[in-house]
Amino acid sequence: MSKRKNNDVLTGNAPEGSMAAGWQGQRGDVLRDEFGLEIPVENVPLPSKGVVYAPEHPLHMQETVQIRAMTAREEDILTSKALIKKGTVITELIRSCLIDKRIDPNDMILGDRNALMVALRITGYGTDYRIEVACPACGERSKQEFNLGELPITRLSEDPIALGSNVFEATMPKAKETDPDLVIRYRHMTGNDEQEITAMTERKKKQGFKSDNLITTRYKQQIVAVNDITDKTKIQMFIQRMPTKYSLSLRKAMDANEPGIQMKQHIQCPHCSEESEVSMPLGASFFWPDTER
To answer: Which end of the chain is more exposed for a tag (fewer CB within 10 A), N or C?
Structure first.
């Protein structure tokens, strides 16, 4: 398979390869309401560059997508109890702000959806994001401020089996010569996949079952073939009995090749002074920033 070069992790003021660099200063067209207000339109870089979408898809080979900034209507979406209960708040928020209404947010891979979500937050409330996080070193929690404009974009490291196909290959390592050749084809999850997993988890909870099979559930959504076998029943049997060495190798390949936004930054703990990299939690304040300074 041919390889693509990952973007470097860059920091600074609107660095190349970051969220801010892709859209900063681009106003595009504007939408005008009945009162003559101008709603800014932004071009948001797609981490996938559109290579995973079929030729008939509106995002096929598109490196950017246009969104308009949030308005009070989108704040209604964010506070909708019905949408929160259904777990579709982010989907409807993205749908409302997309300029091209042919695009279904549920058809987009999660990395591209996350890019739009971060861009909407930036255009609506700015790049500053204050949230409480736990220090990996001492466990103490502290308020930290993150710069969303500095979040680097990660690209595909491997090409799909064909342009316009959300299918990739991962060759499993051999521990010894007698091990069989094993090539697994997988796909990156979309908004539809995420909704299916959420619905499945809720059904199990109502039936009294614990949702403790997150790894195999993910594989059922993502694995499309093992060597030349595409039968779903056989693939599910393989998933349940997959040796852990293959499972670990597959997850590493999937994660390394997943385009999206790196939701991690370095912090210095005010309690123990240790510097650590932490994952940025996306709490309620992501779209309702703390105005206190």
So the answer is: C
